[in-house]
Amino acid sequence: MKRTGLVLMAAFGMVAALIMAPAASAAPATVVFATFNVCKTDCAPPAPSWDVRRDRVARVIGASGADVIGLQEATNNPTSTAKTQVEDIQVNLAGPLGYAAPTFPIEANDCRRPRDAAGQLTGPSPCENTSALIYKTSTIQQVSVPSGISSAGITQYGMIVPSADPTSSARSVAWAYLKPIAGGPAFLAIALHTDNGKNPTSEASRVALATALGPWVEATNASHGMTGTPAMLMTDLNSYAKRQPNGVQKQLVANGWIDAFSAPKRTNIEFTTINYNPAQVDGKGFPARAYRFKVTKKREATRIDYIMGYGQNLKPLDYEVVMYLNADLTFIADYQASDHQMVKSTWSIGS
What we know:
By secondary structure, the chain is an alpha+beta fold. It has one domain (19-349): Deoxyribonuclease I, Chain A, CATH 3.60.10.10. It contains 6 helices and 15 strands. The protein has helices at residues 50-64, 85-93, 157-160, 166-169, 200-223, 248-254, and strands spanning 19-20, 29-37, 68-72, 99-100, 131-136, 140-144, 152-156, 172-180, 187-193, 231-236, 258-259, 265-267, 305-310, 314-321, 343-349. Strands 1, 6, 7, 8, 9, 10, 11 and 13 form an 8-stranded mixed β-sheet that branches. Helix 5 (200-223) packs parallel to helix 6 (248-254). The chain starts with 18 loop residues before the first strand and ends with a strand.
């Protein structure tokens, strides 16, 4: 069956006003989350150029209907249409579709470029920018927090995982306190991308995240006056069950994180979340045809892209690997935006 997506070009305001998070618990709400590694501007051949792929990224975002999207490989590299790739996505592509990026002062960006006493830039960013957030302004709003400090920002992986190696430590992590406009509790949205190194050092840094991330969420909540606020993680963990059976994905679950894959309704789980597979000999991330796994209780399609929740009163309702395929499993080119598929999940949040 051929799947198609309709991109709705409705115009919404780019930045939503902040609202104060309620002190008391709110009624439950359903929120659709998505994670999407868009592949950096210099995505390896045979990937089309960013000038071609950017319209495809917009189509996938617009057709998703997701309320909150965590982006990976949304870089600070310049494009022909914007100063940076992340700006191109957040402003030029997602903005006309009704999405906005969380707002925060420069002081809340731990990855900002250093400046001298006169305010002049004196060096590069200490981070490798790979993660970003956008949210649908018709359904989600950024909240102000009781402590009065910024309710969003960018931190470094190394600030969450002090034991991480230098390459992993330089990864940027985007976060924001958000809330459904129609009612429901606030949540801490996190977009994160681990290093893809296959060496023991990189693996140790990934696994260390599983121990560090929950306490970081709790400390962030406490410092912002948001104790007890659940967290939603949208991430490319560069780890999957067959290659890393005891990897970060398993350890996060062991430490209290809920994997969206546990939802009672699952769609397209026979397809990988990334298009690198020994069975796909063509394409190198952009194959002509999708590979369909034979899924069993002991064998699943490769997943390195995850949506996970942490905290009380969270429940995944559905899970989907977003695919746009013709009947013969060939990719519909207009939606083949990246070497990853978007992953999407609806969650119930609140008691």
